[in-house]
Specification:
40% of the residues lie in helices and 20% in strands. The two termini are 21 Å apart. The protein contains eleven helices and ten strands. By secondary structure, the chain is α/β, with parallel strands linked by helices. Helix 1 crosses helix 9 and helix 10 packs across helix 11.
Length: 264
């Protein structure tokens, strides 16, 4: 069971109610897409938090899945059209709420990684210097302050987009961009001496943002979505999600990421 007082009790109750709810319908084969992003998933090694989560989702449901790998922007397009049933580690906004629903399983904050030689000590410093360029992953959204920051710079033609983390780190090293938005899953790359030595981290000071299983509204009916949501709640309640995260993070950081009150 997830530790944490009242939150843990509520999760346990969710898991218990899930035991009596309708199980996911396995009459058809489902589709799920992964995207390459730090510790969430590595296409090279075929490992990561999202891969482990997907494996457990398939094991518990007993359903058949076709799992693919594609850019995040393409995933959102297919989720919206109904051509893709699921993806993982997604966050919502008003636009996405029109075509997707979510089953939350972790929550994290966002940070600005900047070159030390850019002379930036705050978000305002970066905004004021028109010579500074920001790098982001195409189609990614972040926390409230981070989104405002990105959108303002985008309106000033100061944002470069890439398909993933690796090209962003390369452009940062080459000084073609001077900053990029990161999250805890990106930290291992920061341990590389060549990146750690010339960068600093600035906090956005927003609340942690819930991330979850993405479910297509066109592909899955509300009752079907609820059955998958209860399955995910059960994974949180019995500590499975925490154990997955502890494979990749220290126990304290794993707890900070998975112990939260999930919104509906």
């Amino acid at each position: 069971m997830v530790r944490g007082g009242l939150g843990g009790m509520l999760l346990a109750l969710c898991g218990l109610s899930g035991a009596y709810a309708a199980a996911p319908d396995c009459a058809r084969t489902y589709t799920l897409a992964l995207h390459d992003h730090g510790l969430l998933y590595s296409a090279i090694s075929d490992t990561g938090i999202d891969k482990d989560f997907a494996d457990e989702l398939m094991r518990r449901s007993g359903c058949k899945f076709v799992v693919s790998f594609m850019p995040r922007a393409r995933i959102w397009q297919l989720i919206e059209s109904g051509a893709l049933d699921f993806s993982l580690s997604g966050i919502t906004n008003a636009e996405r709420d029109r075509f997707a629903s979510f089953a939350w399983y972790f929550s994290n904050k966002y940070y600005l990684l900047v070159r030390k030689d850019a002379g930036v000590r705050s978000l305002a410093d970066f905004e004021r210097n028109e010579r500074l360029q920001l790098g982001v992953i195409r189609s990614f959204r972040y926390s409230e302050t981070a989104n405002r920051f990105v959108d303002k710079l985008h309106a000033e033609n100061r944002v470069s987009q890439a398909g993933g983390l690796s090209p962003l780190y390369q452009t940062l090293i080459l000084n073609r961009i001077q900053g990029m938005v990161i999250e805890p899953f990106d930290y291992p790359a920061l341990e590389e001496k060549k990146i750690r030595d010339f960068t600093a981290i600035i906090e956005f000071n927003d609340h942690a943002v819930p991330h979850g299983l993405i479910m297509s509204n066109k592909a899955l009916s509300p009752p079907e979505q609820e059955s998958w949501r209860l399955l995910v709640n059960g994974m949180r309640a019995d500590g499975t999600v925490r154990r997955i995260f502890e494979k990749y993070f220290t126990p304290d950081l794993a707890a900070a990421l998975v112990d939260f009150q999930a919104p509906r």
